[in-house]
Amino acid sequence: MRWQGRRESDNVEDRRNSSGGPSMGGPGFRLPSGKGGIILLIVVLVAGYYGVDLTGLMTGQPISQQETTRSISPNDDEAAKFTSVILATTEDTWGQQFEKMGRTYQQPKLVMYRGATRTGCGAGQSVMGPFYCPADGTVYIDLSFYDDMKNKLGADGDFAQGYVIAHEVGHHVQKLLGIEPKVRQLQQDRIASGSEPTLRTYGATGGLLRGRLGAQHAATGRAGNPAIWKKR
């Protein structure tokens, strides 16, 4: 994809230099006795499945952020610029679609981090893969996920990587349209799959896609969902 020189999004926050990750302070927890303890444990486990960290409820201690400075390699910096360009592309595309509906598109934020970071949904970790947090309207991604796509899923190239970003933005669109709960209930990802038309639109304006769309879509269909979490 010829993406160099295109507009980058202003909605990107780079935490890669200081994302040592959240840690829980304080002593170990004691579950309440009886049914209350069982219910609390179930709630925490279910929330964890959806990427929300509620372990602070059991420790009674806030999550503290331990930050360390890390260097950024040229390859990582290139991936960051690419990610910002793709986010800008989704902003333009969805902005046009919402305008046709007589609405204003509220652009999501995107945070790039390493290892772990704080989110509006609790502690975010790279093992979760890229994810969207509806609580703060933000997409989170550890750029090492691109390497996992290539090495573990065989999904290499710009299209595969761009699909992942557009897929998570699709979940933001679901939230804006008020259909996210229904989509989760039915376990559907149709709007998130609107990322392919988004990238096709991008291609029509001069951005050439590398790789076969069919093969890339098959691989990224797995990459954009929790299946990758089991492989990390």
Automatic annotation (TrEMBL):
Residues 1-17 have a biased composition (Basic and acidic residues). It is a single-pass membrane protein. Keywords: Membrane, Transmembrane, Transmembrane helix. It holds the Pfam family Zn_peptidase. It comes from the Bacteria. The keyword Amino-acid biosynthesis does not apply. It is found in: Membrane. Residues 1-29 are annotated as: Disordered. GO terms for cellular component: membrane. The chain crosses the membrane at residues 38-58. This is Peptidase.
